[in-house]
Amino acid sequence: MFVFVYITSRDFDEAMKIARHLLEKKLIACANIFPIRSMFLWEGKVEECNEFAIICKTKAEKFKEIKDEVRKVHSYEVPCVCSFVVEEGLREFLNWIEETVG
Asked: What are 38-63's pLDDT values in tens digits?
């Protein structure tokens, strides 16, 4: 089974650091990084900030290790690290993920 892992980070540099870390450990095949505007409740207040989101392509069996690795390098006390199952996709693309992360 394949998943996309969604991670938010405080800035572009941190997003790049996280993505590179996961790529070097061969936990993900690819990462897309893009700016987002976030609003959330934190310690009883509505917060707003600019962040960067990372979408990582990988296999479901890698998710636990990804969560552990992100916690090691992330600056947030409670980082967003969620997975979404990929039910279908271009077979060649899914094969590439399989070959890349094992």
From this structure: 999 999 999 999 999 999 999 999 99
Sequence-ordered list of residues with C-beta below 8 angstroms from that of 55, at least 6 positions apart, any chain:
4, 5, 6, 31, 32
pLDDT in tens, 67-97: 999 999 999 999 999 999 999 999 999 999 9
The maximal CA–CA distance of the chain, rounded, in angstroms, is 46
What is the SS3 string spanning the chain? CEEEEEEEECCHHHHHHHHHHHHHCCCCCEEEEEEEEEEEEECCEEEEEEEEEEEEEEEHHHHHHHHHHHHHHCCCCCCCEEEEEECCCCHHHHHHHHHHHC
Task: Provide the residue ranges of all domains of the chain, joining segments of one domain with +.
Answer: 2-101
CATH number of 2-101: 3.30.70.120
